[in-house]
Amino acid sequence: MFKFFNRVKTVVGSELNAMLDKAEDPVKMLEQFMRDMENDIRDAESAVAKQIANEKMLKRKYDDAQAMVEKRMSQAEKAIEAGDEDLARRAIEDKNNQQEQADQMKESYERAKKDSEQLRTKLDEMKKEYQEMKLKKDSLKARAESAQTRTKMNRTMSDIGSDESRQGFERMEEKVMQYEAEAETSEDLRSDNRSLDDEFDALDKKDSVDDELAALKKKMNKE
């Protein structure tokens, strides 16, 4: 369990760049690394909890055995005071047996306590390393996303400035200029036509005025 965690940590630490080069999606790979670490930490917490429970069980057995030693010793003293050496002897014999069990329980308890402390220390180290890797993962994730965005923008800008795009733009510009030229030509033709029509309209108006003026003169002379 701890070896696997250390292997993942090593990959994320010293070999990360090489793996990111091969990975199709660095962000997903980083997320997977973190999930693996989280699973390792949960397994370690479970192992530590079991070890602590074992330590407490051995401590309780040691305390019970030691209490029995003290009880038998007290009973032996009481038997001697009562003048019953046989009872005192049996109490002392059982006290010695209980002492042997107490010594064994004490040795097992102290070993279990030491193992618990070592496991707690390793678990704390794992959690600390996990937090360090989490910060590094967040930084690398941001860098990867930023790099991907820049790459996408650069590709887009490259496409915009490509020869094909530029030629297409120039072709459309020429079409617009052609449309403008055609519009100006049609306006010139229309202007010429209007000038000719205006002259005939003016001529008609002049004839009408002359006719009206002649009629007026004729009327006035007649009167």
Quick summary:
This is Phage shock protein A (PspA) family protein. Helix content is 95%, strand content 0%.
Task: Summarize this structure as a short list of keywords or feature phrases.
single chain, 223 residues, mainly alpha, Helix Hairpins, 2 domains, 5 helices
Uncertain regions spanning at least 5 consecutive residues? none
How many helices? The count is 5
What does the radius of gyration come to?
A: 53 Å
Distance between the termini: 135 Å
Biased composition (Basic and acidic residues): 134-144, 163-174
Region (Disordered): 94-117, 134-174
Biased composition (Polar residues): 146-159
Pfam families: PspA_IM30 (PF04012)
Structure description:
Residues 94-117, 134-174 are annotated as: Disordered. InterPro entries: PspA_VIPP1. Belongs to the PspA/Vipp/IM30 family. This is Phage shock protein A (PspA) family protein. The protein is mostly helical. The protein has two domains: 2-160, Helix Hairpins (Orthogonal Bundle), CATH 1.10.287; 166-223. The protein is 95% helix and 0% strand. It has five helices and no strands. Helix 1 (2-13) runs antiparallel to helix 3 (26-81), helix 1 packs parallel to helix 4 and helix 3 (26-81) runs antiparallel to helix 4 (85-160).
